[in-house]
């Protein structure tokens, strides 16, 4: 009886650990972000405008989901590495598909920073139609005076802008 009880406790413990991993999430209230965002701590729930400061880097593991809770922008003054894989993409989305989020802003990012790269990403529901200048251009990306951005093997969908469409690049 004691052996059966120990096996049951071990089995229940393993199940609880697996279930706990299914509900992992990280809340970001806004402000500066950097470091590594992991799939294990995903989704990342964004509740304010976020910024990668000049000279800083943020890397996202394949499979990370970033979910914006409102019309918040993601300002990149440093470097973002969002490198998914064919089988495990990185998702940037909005909880409210009608209002969306304000997308990525790379405006006069210092040329001394590393490139920002997006590969195998799903980028959706960028909406800047209600934003004021300078944030009302480019539904998903506004890239001004920064030539070191690479977007490859990614899908940009359901974005809205009054000018420039999904990508505004000058």
Let me know the average pLDDT: 89
Helical content class: 10-25%
Q: Major beta sheet, specifics?
A: 6 strands, parallel
Strand order of the largest sheet: 1-4-7-10-13-16
Number of DSSP strand runs:
17
Instruction: Give the count of helical stretches.
Output: 1
Beta-strand share of residues: 35-45%
Order of helices and strands: HEEEEEEEEEEEEEEEEE
Principal-axes geometry comes out as: globular
Q: Give the C-alpha Rg.
A: 19 Å
How does the helix and strand content classify structurally?
mainly beta
Task: List the uncertain runs.
Answer: 13-21
N- and C-termini, Cα separation: 73 Å
What does this structure look like?
The protein is built from 1 helix and 17 strands. It is mainly beta and 170 residues long. The strands form 3 sheets. It has a 6-stranded parallel sheet, with no helix packed on it.
Summarize the structure.
The chain is mainly β and 170 residues long.
């Amino acid at each position: 009886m004691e052996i059966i009880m120990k096996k049951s406790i071990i089995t229940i413990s393993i199940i609880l650990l697996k279930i706990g991993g299914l509900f992992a999430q990280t809340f970001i209230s806004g402000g500066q972000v950097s470091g590594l965002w992991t799939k294990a701590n995903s989704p990342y729930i964004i509740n304010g405008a976020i910024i990668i400061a000049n000279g800083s880097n943020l890397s996202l593991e394949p499979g990370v989901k970033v979910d914006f809770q409102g019309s918040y922008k993601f300002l990149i003054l440093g470097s973002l590495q969002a490198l998914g894989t064919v089988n495990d993409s990185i998702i940037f989305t909005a909880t409210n598909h009608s209002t969306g989020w304000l997308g990525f802003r790379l405006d006069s990012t210092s040329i001394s920073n590393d490139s920002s790269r997006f590969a195998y990403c799903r980028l959706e529901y960028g909406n800047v139609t209600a934003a004021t200048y300078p944030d009302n251009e480019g539904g998903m990306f506004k890239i001004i005076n920064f030539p070191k951005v690479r977007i490859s093997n990614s899908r940009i969908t359901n974005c809205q802008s009054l000018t420039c469409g999904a990508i505004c690049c000058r």
